[in-house]
């Protein structure tokens, strides 16, 4: 950015030689919104800006630095040039010296600054440069960072000397370059916000005498020419596909890479590497390439000479930005939208914003970019729309609607909660015809809004538990894939997701709820073939409760707030103390196989409502509804990177999530043993917050004054619901001795009526267990129970049919010392224990003797006994005269080895929020 000439070598400045002070007289030499933000932050930090030196007005438009300085009555000097030939202009240098600055700050400077100015202040001059010096010393540093395929980008703040960006280093910061980064995304995500903050920090260090002076090495140095020369902007199609992709994104959005398409000069924007099958569409000729490009519904697909395919989403033709998918189509008439009175009130506000940016009168045909606006003006426009109208737009909304009337239409559509029509994510689908419908779902990992193959290429087989057939093979995530997902989630959290208002985030969550509802039959069918869930139950519970939970937490998104707290005042002054609830950032979620979509929803909805982003690992044995959810999340309008879904093995992908230093919270549902491992990994990595919903051995007490028929029905539901694959299943049923035999007889009578069969058949009650290993565990569990003396009344074996079916099972005579009394089966096994009514406390003590404390229940007409039980039982959930009655508004979670933390209800939000306490003295 900075161009300096005829410098004298900067003498090393001892940090002990600088005065120790809190503020400085600063001159800012530069331009753009970046320099304006540095100006504002220096004032906020207590420094005095004694003069601003910037460029001449462009037509009627002042530079943003001049605007903000004028508003604060800071002297502004608009300099056409600082020198003539090789010599500094004496009148300009004299004008500069009059402000008597102690330090020059050059946050974004495109002019040649003479050494008389650079060395004049007491503390010399510090400069911002958008590269990790000494690499990319030239004016187009950001562009060349991307063009060269660097894996790391960043910026340097250095002391000006007589070279071109070669002075000693004061500070440097870096960030990873993501696969789809452009100049804009790098600038907006890191170089802009961190650069502004670091410039202010550098001034503070100079003021306090702590600014380092580190000689700049020449090793690895480079200097590339400005990309403003048109000859350097043309795509060289003889290069490799990767080099071409880096070149196009390295010039996006300024100045833009160009090529010839069908003998027309066209600029290319928003490129990405295409990993799916080639789509169908119209063919066009691209410059020297032998293979024609394809215009399709997602853009322009170009095949490079080495076979790599690059998709282009936007084109500039004759200065007009269009969707690449529309290339070759005749212009269509502008869409007509009927505005409400409230929407009509937006128009004068938007007109004022455009007028202030462009410094000209605005008409419906005013073109934002043809009127002189640049990429930083896009940032300013979006920020002012957000501040004044509380609406969040994307850069693309401006680029694709640069005419004022079109922009207003786009704004109104966004205010109505609409996203781009028919948004779909591309993938190579698995297509299955089952349940009288044609299912389609992805088989790849979902990272940064795209379905991609795993880094390792490993796959997992998805087995239909009803007939043991292979549904498909899916990609299996590795540690490297988790890293990529975390990078994407971090970027989304620092960018678009956090920039959206909570209400807008809630609107997207409502949209995913609507899409789940719209696709509920398809989702229930996928859940059935993938997990063995009975289709009718999947419709009502697996999918139905998922829809409810997204709606519930969508409503919470804009209702999260802190408190004002009265504290003792520091007399004679006063104090104000308040708290803020803030998201953690990137959260990891690991879910089990018994309710694949519902468990995803329980955790992810609360997590996103709190403002976090997610890297989620669904179970490897039932991941398909999670992948379908990923597809729908794109249609709902979640920004890329907010949701990342990585099927994989717990030992690799799960462990990588638990250990990752950039994940600040992990929510897990699963076994107690795995919960131990996750908690240990989380503690040893970065002490990330953990919430665990683990195993259970939930007691159910049946007293003799109960409604017997209801208690039988509810007890059976408590044990056999969802094939017993239910974390709060009534793992042990205590029945009062006076009704024990009658209770058992009724249970056995009802068990015989349970129809075992194909989960897709509407009259099936009991489907297959989730997977083969679990079926074998249940068989071994029953054998051990029989060997220890429990009496098998019915079931206990695998029926003679294909599939992972297990008969509903009832044991009686279960004693406290037996394995069946202590350990969870997670299957359709009822363990009945007889007890005497003489001592309720004794049976509560027996119920509490397990290591678990997830759920519990009691059936009695005596409210005193019921409330006594609720008080004494050591479990997170207590049911009285009901069971399995969960609701999205009621907190859910256990005690002891059943874990800690809550899903559902308001309390679930606290699992994904941190509390910040702020005290102000006045």
Automatic annotation (TrEMBL):
Protein name, per record: 10-formyltetrahydrofolate dehydrogenase
UniProt-listed Enzyme Commission number(s): 1.5.1.6
PANTHER family reported for this sequence: ALDEHYDE DEHYDROGENASE-RELATED (PTHR11699)
Keyword terms: NADP, One-carbon metabolism, Oxidoreductase, Phosphopantetheine, Phosphoprotein
Family matches, as PROSITE patterns: ALDEHYDE_DEHYDR_CYS, ALDEHYDE_DEHYDR_GLU, CARRIER, GART
Site (Essential for catalytic activity): 165
Keyword Phosphoprotein applies: yes
Residues that, per the record, bind (6R)-10-formyltetrahydrofolate: 111-113, 165
A biological-process GO annotation: one-carbon metabolic process
Pfam families reported for this sequence: Aldedh, Formyl_trans_C, Formyl_trans_N, PP-binding
Reaction(s) catalysed (UniProt annotation): (6R)-10-formyltetrahydrofolate + NADP(+) + H2O = (6S)-5,6,7,8-tetrahydrofolate + CO2 + NADPH + H(+)
Catalytic class of the enzyme: oxidoreductase
Chain sites annotated for binding NADP(+): 670-671, 777, 824-826
Family note: Belongs to the aldehyde dehydrogenase family. In the N-terminal section; belongs to the GART family.
Record has Cytoplasm as a keyword: no
Any one of the GO CC terms: cytoplasm
One Gene Ontology term of the molecular function aspect: formyltetrahydrofolate dehydrogenase activity
Domain Carrier as annotated: residue spans: 341-415
Catalytic residues identified in the record: 129, 693, 727
């Amino acid at each position: 950015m900075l161009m300096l000439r005829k410098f004298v070598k900067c003498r090393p400045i001892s940090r002990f030689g600088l005065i120790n002070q809190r503020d400085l007289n600063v001159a800012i030499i530069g331009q753009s919104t970046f320099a304006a933000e540095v100006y504002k932050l220096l004032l906020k930090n207590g420094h005095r800006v004694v003069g601003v030196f910037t460029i001449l007005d462009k037509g009627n438009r002042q530079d943003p630095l001049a605007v903000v300085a004028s508003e604060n009555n800071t002297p502004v000097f608009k300099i056409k040039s600082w020198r003539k030939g090789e010599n500094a202009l004496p009148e300009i240098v004299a004008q500069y010296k009059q402000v008597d600055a102690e330090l020059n700050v050059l946050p974004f400077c495109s002019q040649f600054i003479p050494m008389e100015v650079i060395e004049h202040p007491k503390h010399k001059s510090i400069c911002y440069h958008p590269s990790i010096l000494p690499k990319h010393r030239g004016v187009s540093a950001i562009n060349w960072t991307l063009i060269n395929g660097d894996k790391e980008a960043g910026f340097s703040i250095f002391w000006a000397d007589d070279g071109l960006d070669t002075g000693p280093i004061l500070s440097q910061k870096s960030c990873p370059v993501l696969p789809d980064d452009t100049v804009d995304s790098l600038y907006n995500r890191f170089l802009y916000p961190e650069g502004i903050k670091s410039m202010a920090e550098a001034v503070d260090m100079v003021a306090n005498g702590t600014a380092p002076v580190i000689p700049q090495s020449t090793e690895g140095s480079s200097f590339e020419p400005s990309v403003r020369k048109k000859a350097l902007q043309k795509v060289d199609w003889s290069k490799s596909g990767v080099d071409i992709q880096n070149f196009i994104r390295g010039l996006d959005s300024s100045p833009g890479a160009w090529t010839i398409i069908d003998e027309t000069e066209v600029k290319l924007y928003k490129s990405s590497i295409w990993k799916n099958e080639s789509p169908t569409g119209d063919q066009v000729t691209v410059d020297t390439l032998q293979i024609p490009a394809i215009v399709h519904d997602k853009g322009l697909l170009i095949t490079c000479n080495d076979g790599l395919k690059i998709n282009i989403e936007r084109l500039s033709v004759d200065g007009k930005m269009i969707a690449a998918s529309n290339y070759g189509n005749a212009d269509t008439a502008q869409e007509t939208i009927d505005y409400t009175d409230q929407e009509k009130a937006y128009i004068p506000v938007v007109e004022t914003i455009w007028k202030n940016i462009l410094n000209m009168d605005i008409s419906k045909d005013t073109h934002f970019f043809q009127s002189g606006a640049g990429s930083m003006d896009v940032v300013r426009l979006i920020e002012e729309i957000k501040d004044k109208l509380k609406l969040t737009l994307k850069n693309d909304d401006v680029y694709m609607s640069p005419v004022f009337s079109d922009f207003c239409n786009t704004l109104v559509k966004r205010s109505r909660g609409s996203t781009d029509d028919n948004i779909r994510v591309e993938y190579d689908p698995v297509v299955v015809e089952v349940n009288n419908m044609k299912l389609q779902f992805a088989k790849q990992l979902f990272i940064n809004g795209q379905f991609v193959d795993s880094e390792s290429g490993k796959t997992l087989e998805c087995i239909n538990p009803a007939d043991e057939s292979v549904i498909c093979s899916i990609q299996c995530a590795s540690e490297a894939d988790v890293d990529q997902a975390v990078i994407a989630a971090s970027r989304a959290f620092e960018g678009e997701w956090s920039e959206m208002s909570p209400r807008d985030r809630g609107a997207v969550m409502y949209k995913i709820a609507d899409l789940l509802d719209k696709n509920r039959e398809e989702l229930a069918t996928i859940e059935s073939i993938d997990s063995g869930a009975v289709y009718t139950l999947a419709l009502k519970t697996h999918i139905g409760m998922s829809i409810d939970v997204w709606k519930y937490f969508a409503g919470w998104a804009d209702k999260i707030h802190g408190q004002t707290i009265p504290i003792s005042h520091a007399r004679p002054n006063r104090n104000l103390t308040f708290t803020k609830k803030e998201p953690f950032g990137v959260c990891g979620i690991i879910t089990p196989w018994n309710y694949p979509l519902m468990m995803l929803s329980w955790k992810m909805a609360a997590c996103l409502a709190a403002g976090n982003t997610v890297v989620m690992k669904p179970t490897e044995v039932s991941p398909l509804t999670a992948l379908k959810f990923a597809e729908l999340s794109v249609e709902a309008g979640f920004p890329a990177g907010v949701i990342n879904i990585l099927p994989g093995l717990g030992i690799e992908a799960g462990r990588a999530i638990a250990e990752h230093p950039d994940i600040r919270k992990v929510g897990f549902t699963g076994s107690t043993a795995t919960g131990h491992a996750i908690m240990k990994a989380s503690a040893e990595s970065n002490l990330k917050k953990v919430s665990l919903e683990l195993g259970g051995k939930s007691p159910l007490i049946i007293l003799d004054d109960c409604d017997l028929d209801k208690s039988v029905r509810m007890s059976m539901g408590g044990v056999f619901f969802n094939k017993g694959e239910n974390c709060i299943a009534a793992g042990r049923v205590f029945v009062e001795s006076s009704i024990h035999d009658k209770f058992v007889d009724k249970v056995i009578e009802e068990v015989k009526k349970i129809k075992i069969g194909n989960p897709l058949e509407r009259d099936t009650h009991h489907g297959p267990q989730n997977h083969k290993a679990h079926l074998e565990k249940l068989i071994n569990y029953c054998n051990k129970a029989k060997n220890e003396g429990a009496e098998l009344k019915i079931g206990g074996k695998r029926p003679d049919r294909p599939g992972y079916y297990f008969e509903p099972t009832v044991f009686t005579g279960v004693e406290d010392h037996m394995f069946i009394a202590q350990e969870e089966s997670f299957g359709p096994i009822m363990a009945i224990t007889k007890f005497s009514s003489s001592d309720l406390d004794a049976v509560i003590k027996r119920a509490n003797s397990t290591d678990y404390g997830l759920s519990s229940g009691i059936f009695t007409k005596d409210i005193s006994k019921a409330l006594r039980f609720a008080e004494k039982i050591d479990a997170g959930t207590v049911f009285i005269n009901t069971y399995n009655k969960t609701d999205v508004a009621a907190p859910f979670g256990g005690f002891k080895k059943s874990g800690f933390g809550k899903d559902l209800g308001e309390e679930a939000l606290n699992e994904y929020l941190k509390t910040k306490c702020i005290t102000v003295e006045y």
